[in-house]
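Fill-in record for Homoserine O-acetyltransferase.
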Amino acid sequence: MTDTRFGLNRQARLTGSLMLDGGASLPEVEIAYETYGVLDADASNAILICHALTGDQHVASPHPRTGKPGWWQRVVGPGKPIDTDTHLVICANVLGSCMGSSGPASLDPATGRPFAMRFPVITIRDMVRAQAALLDHLGIQRLKAVVGGSMGGMQALQWAATYPDRVAAALVIASSARHSAQNIAFHEVGRQAIMADPNWRGGEYYDAAPPAAGLAVARMAAHITYLSEAGLTEKFGRRLQARDAKSFGFDADFQVESYLRHQGISFTDRFDANSYLYITRAMDYLDIAEEHGGSLAAAFRGTSTRFCLISFDSDWLYPTAESRAIVHALNAAGAPVSFVELSSPFGHDAFLLEQPEMDRVIAGFLGVGA
């Protein structure tokens, strides 16, 4: 039985080279992670939660830098849909990120300086390989479930495709098996905003002022895709900021402008611009069907993993049609799969917000075979 205190923040140094899809390797990898609950005697109750693009390992405990609650604290915990009274929950910061795992800001052992843009290019599968190495380090050979929303859902699908014998169930929320041209285009706008910031300096900014303005714009552009027109209209409409006298110009005249600027500025306090470049590129590279002759079904043929997919009707970043395509592929592969589209006005971010219907689906799916 593993000693795991609730919300314990850990750092694992994984020795042995990690081979990457791009052909490079990392001789040593550090993975920051948190655990919640206790592993049972036969190590059969472990659930891996995979975070989204700008997420982290602090899924159900306060963020040490911002003090905000864990990003999925309403879903993960004692008696909650992902119940830490009965499961060991693990959430690891992805490879390439900036919350303790190896990434561009990490020190290159060859030079003693941050890797910056010398960090090797990574993929979603590389992130999954690092997570698998972490589970080996923890003595966990098989997961009861892997769960993720958005980029986390991509990791859950990649887990099931790469390590089918290690995953009993995969819960994929508001996600996709590959990016559309529109997804890639939005990411490229963000990357160009970062690289156009004079403070980016080709990624060599760790001893100077970071490219905060560029990163803030990247976050603003991305954040729009996480919302919905209905949600923005309900929350802000065309309402103006309160002013003593009417004035026109380039200040934040509209409430929605002020909201986006706040999102951008607050993001720069907790995230690394180079990590944003690397992780968005990893998401864009994902195409699980590609190495299977373009057949997504072939990637999962013969699997015994159970799947559940959840989409939201107002999500235009990863619309329901993309989840249905995955479901059709899983059906063609003969994999056991369930699917539900939920109604929400909150767009892609709905999976992070109060969603009682989603909570019931999660609890029900994870309870099967418990």
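KEY FINDING: The chain has two domains: 8-179+288-367, 183-280.
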